[in-house]
Structures are given as C-alpha cells and as structure tokens.
Amino acid sequence: MTGQADAPHISVDHVNKRFQTASRAQLQALKDVSFAATRGEFISIVGPSGCGKSTLLYIVAGLLDASDGTVTVDDERVTGPSPERGVVLQNFSIFPWRRVIDNVAYGPEMRGASRQERRRIARQYLETVGLGEFAEYFPRELSGGMKQRIAIAQMLACNPSIFLMDEPFGALDALTREVLQEQLLRLWERDRKTVLFVTHSIDEAVLLSDRVIVMATRPGRIKEIVPIDLPRPRRAEEIRALPQFGTLRRHIWASIRAETLEMMQ
Ligand SMILES: Nc1ncnc2c1ncn2[C@@H]1O[C@H](COP(=O)(O)OP(=O)(O)OP(=O)(O)O)[C@@H](O)[C@H]1O
C-alpha cells in the first residue's frame, strides 16, 4: 500500500479485451483503455449498450483476464478476485439455501466474526438497504429488486476498500433507487471507498461521481472523462437543482447520444 491520498488506488493501463465469438470471428470489446482512480474517488462508467462497461468491471474485479494491458491495485497486479474488491454484478450471486441475514453475514463469517457479531453487521446493512424486516426470509421469497439489494448489503458487509458495482440500482423502482442513491452518498462520504460504478442513468452518474468515464463503442474505448465539480456533501434534491448539474447532464447525454447514433448507422 502506498498510503498516499493522490497515488492511484486502481490503475488500468492499455487494456484490450478480445472475445472469440461462436462464429469464430474476434470481437474487440475493449481497446486501449487507460485510467486511474485515486483512493476514495467515485468514478462512474457510462456509454451505449455493448461498449464494454461490464467487461471492464469484470477485468478490474479479476473475474476476467485482459487480452493485453494491466490492472493494478495499490501497485499490485490484479490476477484474480480479492475480498478487497467487493462486487455487485448484474447476475448477482446469493445463496438460495441461506436466509437473507445469513447471505449478508457471509463476508464477516469468512473473516471469522462470531455469530453474534456477523449477525449484528448483517442487520446494520440490511437496514441500510431497507430490508431489515426480511432478515429471516429466504431469497426465493423476495422480488428481483429486493435480491439486488441483498447483493448490495452483502458487499457492504464485507467492507472492501473498493466497490465495483454494475448497474446496482438497475432493477429497482424509481423511488427505491433514489433512496439507495442517497444511502450510497452518505456511506461514501463517511467511508470514502474507491468506487467504480456502471450505470445507464446519466442523472445517477452525475449525482454520485467525482468523475464520469464516457465510453464509445465498436470497439469499446474511453471517449472522454468528465470531472464532476459539484459541491460535497451532496443532497440529491439540492444537487439536481443546480444549473451546473443540468449542464453536466446535457454534456454527457449529447456525448453518449452521438455514439449511439453512430453505432446504429
Ligand atoms: N463472454 C463473451 N463472449 C463473447 N462476447 C462477449 C462476451 N462478453 C461480452 N461480450 C461482448 O463484448 C461487448 C461488450 O459487452 P459488455 O457486456 O461489456 O457491454 P456493456 O457496455 O456492459 O453493455 P450493456 O450496457 O448492454 O450491459 C459486447 O459486444 C458483447 O457482445
């Protein structure tokens, strides 16, 4: 660990990813992707469907190898998953045979926390995602959006130094989504984790982030990185009312729209 606030926490250097498709053609999902995240930075990744956002997150998570290039965390090369890098993925992984609370308690359990301690931690994060009442339920008794929230609570309970989140609020209704955005803002302000956050919502990206990476497609690459110079701490309602919020939102929207139109031609 470098321990320096401005040293890169995550560094992605010249990453390419090629997939061999079923038709044997090669598909270049990522081309020469480079960026660095400082410790405690919140970065969102946006871009048209298929531009490689999930692929990039999987590579940083160590769940997928890059074809070329490197990812380092605290100067150490990523070669596989680590409990330091918590993930919330689109195909969330919860254990169907465990009660909700025991799903969330899994990380603390792996760290050797006592039953009482891990249940206390799990309860705390279940409250955070608004599922305190469902602690003793089984996942099959919950909706898709509720399961998604379990996956978020599970990651929070592991207390990783890096959050890698792929559309974590995608399956939620608009109101729950807003509540969880606020919760994530408060948690981030308190703990200052380094976050890579994939989203289709430009509004969400601008609200939460320090910087927004806009990706282009075919092949997936970084088009631009937009700094979000909005004041913190952020309260969603106040932030959305600021003229800069609208300007940033429109800028990113136009950038993605241009990409999407080009892709569809
Ligand atoms: N395992 C795989 N094998 C072959 N091609 C893949 C594989 N995974 C992803 N791809 C391709 O890589 C490209 C990027 O996919 P990815 O899921 O990363 O995009 P995305 O930006 O996250 O898309 P979306 O916004 O629709 O979720 C797509 O063209 C996809 O078809």
TrEMBL record:
PROSITE patterns: ABC_TRANSPORTER_1, ABC_TRANSPORTER_2
Pfam families for the chain: ABC_tran
Listed GO MF terms: ATP binding; ATP hydrolysis activity
CDD domains associated with the record: ABC_NrtD_SsuB_transporters (cd03293)
Protein's UniProt keywords contain Transcription regulation: no
SMART domains cross-referenced by the UniProt entry: AAA
SUPFAM superfamilies recorded: P-loop containing nucleoside triphosphate hydrolases
Ranges where the ABC transporter domain occurs: 10-242
Alphabetical UniProt keywords: ATP-binding, Nucleotide-binding, Transport
InterPro entries: AAA+_ATPase (IPR003593), ABC_transporter-like_ATP-bd (IPR003439), ABC_transporter-like_CS (IPR017871), ABC_transporter_ATP-bind (IPR050166), P-loop_NTPase (IPR027417)
Family, similarity comment: Belongs to the ABC transporter superfamily.
Annotated protein name in UniProt: ABC transporter ATP-binding protein
